[in-house]
Design brief:
With about 210 residues, this protein is α+β, with helices and mostly antiparallel strands. The chain has seven helices and nine strands; from the N terminus they run βαααββααβαβαββββ. It has one domain (about 10-210): 3-Layer(aba) Sandwich (Aminopeptidase). Strand 2 and strand 3 (about 70-80) form a beta hairpin.
Length: about 210
Amino acid sequence: MERAGAPALRPCTAADAAVAVPLIHASGPAALRYVFAPRAEGQALAFLHAAFADGAGEFGFRNHLAIERDGSVLGVAALWDGRSNAAFTVAAVRQIVGFYRAAAPGVLWRGLRFERVVRPAQRDVAYIGHVAVSEELRGQGVGRSLLEHLLARARAAGYRRAGLDVAASNSRARALYEAMGFTVRATRRSTLADRTGRVPDHRYMEVGLQV
């Protein structure tokens, strides 16, 4: 039997959209539906597809990394810091206005409300976001491998801390983060809810990086 290769991290490309976008959506479905699905269930996925293909901003392919093995994408994540916040805002406004047209102000308002729960990245912290692994591979060490690659990349770039947010309802992800040394620094309560449901409370976690 041929032995599978080790998982490796690589930058995403626009061609990864079919696999990457559903994974990005799975990383925070309640929050993404709240912000990006004001009228119909499929709007969030449709917007994420458009933003990913555009390339720019928080949801663009240029901000994402894929972990793959033998040419198959196993999971995705993003890694950035607060120096990208202004550019992300400009890209988000452009993408949202272009996609939602007359409904754009409402989407932007919900996005601003969500930032009270998950705050913009800090300038000196390597922020890890949109972490997701294919459902059939969860529990097989892929998530840990993905995080190890991300932390190694952050360490090599000179960061002393890495941070992420996790939904309080996602005990499995939090257990993994804690096992890798992350500790809770803040719990942010959510009162956000609409016809799609409630956005859960989130916990901000950090880990120190030995440089």
